[in-house]
């Protein structure tokens, strides 16, 4: 359905995106992951024809949208990272306004507003001002705006940032349902790996403007098939312990989060004794050491050297 070929964008001396190649099949949910500054938003802006690439092409059904941007605008819905609503209007008035921009009117617009409000679970709040909505409700209405013109494809740029777990789950289930029941094609970016695990058929990992890995969840996890992740829980994390772990030649990655230290090591290495020794040496109280199979988060850390939220 959509093919991205050698796509690049340069701003003066900054190469934001460099030689990106991707594709989306009709009816897929595809994840685009990357740490902050990886080039995801720039890529999305080029795909949605908001900015022109420095080089490369984006083809929709084998027609260039760089040369003919209106081709994609008719069939694409975009849910931006920032809320894009008029807070002094009601939910229904926002949908009326954006629906008219899409070219909808009369009975068609009224029917679509009713259908969309039902889809996003806001029918009973249609007459309420958006400024009275919670963050989660605003996010849902933002999605509703993108769905109004019945797009074939939707781009969702971190649609669950800063909302409560209930609203987040509602949005994820809504995306899954629209994909399953209507065959909606989705390009989804997120800072939450569990969302991508739940939703996506395939995943692209982006860093420093490049696509550095792609595949299904299982294919990506196989990158670390010869390695294990060890989770070390301690009473208090000390800088000295992190230093000695990083200095160990058998340890390939060290990541600190909350009171846990995650390290990636070759499967054949048994580092329990060494970890215990390092804890004693740095006077760190160990709570537990756990070995687990690599996760998508581990693969991301291995490839980028950073956690997804960094």
Spell out the key features of this protein.
11 helices; Putative ABC transporter ATP-binding protein YfiL; 4-stranded antiparallel β-sheet; 2 domains; Rossmann fold; alpha/beta; 14 strands; 6-stranded mixed β-sheet; Alpha-Beta Plaits; 310 residues
Please give the order of strands in the largest beta sheet. 6-7-8-3-9-10
- The CATH class of the largest domain turns out to be Alpha Beta
Shape: globular
- List low-pLDDT spans: none
Subcellular location: Cell membrane
Domain ABC transporter: 2-233
Organism: Caldibacillus thermoamylovorans
Pfam family, one: ABC_tran
Topology:
Layout: E1 2-11, E2 14-24, E3 29-33, H1 40-47, E4 55-60, E5 63-64, H2 70-73, E6 76-79, H3 91-101, H4 106-119, H5 135-147, E7 153-157, H6 165-182, E8 185-189, H7 193-199, E9 202-207, E10 210-215, H8 217-221, E11 227-234, H9 239-247, E12 253-257, E13 260-266, H10 272-281, E14 286-292, H11 296-304
Helix pairs in contact: 3-4, 5-6
GO molecular function, one term: ATP hydrolysis activity
Subcellular location: Cell membrane
Main location: membrane
Describe it.
Helix content is 35%, strand content 28%. The protein is built from eleven helices and 14 strands. The two termini are 32 Å apart.
């Amino acid at each position: 359905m959509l093919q991205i070929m050698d796509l690049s964008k340069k701003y003066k001396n900054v190469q934001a995106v460099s030689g990106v190649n991707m594709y989306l099949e009709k009816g897929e949910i595809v994840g685009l992951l990357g740490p902050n500054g990886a080039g995801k938003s720039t890529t999305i802006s080029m795909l949605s024809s908001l900015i022109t690439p420095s080089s490369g092409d984006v083809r929709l059904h084998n027609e260039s949208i760089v040369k003919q941007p209106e081709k994609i605008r008719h069939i694409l819905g975009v849910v931006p990272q920032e809320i894009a609503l008029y807070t002094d209007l009601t939910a229904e008035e926002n949908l009326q306004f954006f629906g008219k921009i899409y070219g909808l009117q009369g009975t068609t617009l009224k029917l679509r507003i009713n259908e969309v409000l039902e889809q996003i679970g806001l029918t009973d709040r249609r007459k309420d001002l958006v400024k009275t909505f919670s963050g989660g409700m605003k996010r849902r209405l933002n999605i509703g705006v993108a769905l109004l013109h019945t797009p074939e494809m939707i781009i969702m740029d971190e649609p669950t940032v800063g909302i409560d777990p209930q609203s987040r789950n509602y949005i994820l289930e809504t995306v899954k349902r629209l994909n399953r029941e209507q065959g909606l094609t989705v390009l989804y970016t997120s800072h939450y790996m569990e969302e991508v695990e739940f939703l996506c058929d395939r995943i692209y990992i982006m860093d420093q403007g490049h696509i550095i890995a792609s595949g299904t969840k299982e294919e990506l996890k196989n990158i670390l098939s010869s390695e294990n992740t060890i989770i070390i829980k301690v009473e208090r994390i000390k800088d000295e312990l992190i230093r000695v772990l990083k200095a160990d030649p058998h340890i390939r990655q060290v990541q600190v989060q909350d009171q846990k230290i995650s390290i990636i090591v070759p499967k054949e290495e048994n580092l329990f004794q060494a970890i215990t020794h390092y804890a004693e040496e740095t006077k760190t109280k160990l709570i537990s050491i756990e070995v687990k199979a690599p996760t998508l988060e581990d693969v991301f850390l291995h490839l980028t050297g950073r956690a997804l939220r960094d």
